[in-house]
Amino acid sequence: MAILVPGRAGTCQSTDELVDRVIRRAGWLEPVADVVQRAVGKAYRLLGTPGAAPRSALHGTRIAGHALRSALTDLPVGAWIPGVAFDLVAHFTTRIPTEAGDIALAIGLVGALGSVLTGYTDFYDTCGHERRVGMAHGLTMTPHPPVYAALVFGCWGLIVDDVVINSTHALGESVVTQ
Q: Directed axis angle between helix 128-141 and helix 15-25, to 10°?
C-alpha cells in the first residue's frame, strides 16, 4: 500500500518510492544478508536430504502449489486484532473471559512463527535489491514473535502485568511495519 508523502519542491512521492530509495542506499544490509542467508543454508544442509521436504513445505510448493508465506502473514494480524479487542473488553467488563484474548494472541503467535520460518526460507533464494528489501523486512518483523510470546506468557501471569497496554502497543508495531 503506497501512501503519498511530501517530496522535494512541493511534489509528492509514494512511500514505496521513499522506502525503495532508502533500501538502495543501505549498503550495510548486504553483509547482514550474507550472514542470514548462510545461516539458513547451513540449517537446511544440516538436515541433509530430509531437509528438502520441510524446505519445500515452507516454500508452499508441496502444500499449496504456490507461496505459503503470503497466506501465513495474514494469520497473526487477523488473530491479534480480535485478541486486543478481547483483552480490552475483558479488562473493562465481564462479558468475555480473559482467556479469549490469550487464545487469540497464541494463535497469532503460531502464525507469526510460521511467517518467520517461511520468510527466511524464501529469503534464502533472493539476490540483489530483492534481497535487501527482504533483509530490511526481516529485521523489522522478526522481533514481533518474541514480543507476542512475552505477551502470551504475560497473560498467564508469568511476565507482564498490563497485558492490554502491551498487546495494543505490539499490535500497533506489527501493523505499522507490515
A: 100
Residue 79, Cβ neighbours under 10 Å: how many?
21
CB 152 within 8 A of CB 102: yes
pLDDT in tens, the chain (178 residues): 555 555 555 555 566 788 888 889 999 999 999 999 999 999 989 988 888 888 888 888 777 777 788 888 888 888 888 888 888 888 888 899 878 888 888 888 888 888 899 999 999 989 999 999 999 989 988 887 887 777 667 655 544 445 555 555 556 555 555 5
What is the residue extent of each domain of the chain?
4-177
Other Cβ atoms less than 10 A from the Cβ of 74: the count is: 11
How many whole angstroms separate alpha carbon 112 and alpha carbon 115? 5
pTM assigned to the model? 0.73
Q: Judge contact between 13 and 4, C-beta under 8 A.
A: yes
CB of 105 closer than 8 Å to CB of 152 = yes
Q: Which tens digits make up the pLDDT trace of 138-159?
A: 998 888 788 777 766 765 554 4
DSSP code per residue over 34-66: HHHHHHHHHHHHHH-GGGHHHHHHHHTTTTTSS
Smallest Cα–Cα separation from 137: which of 150, 120, 149, 160? 120
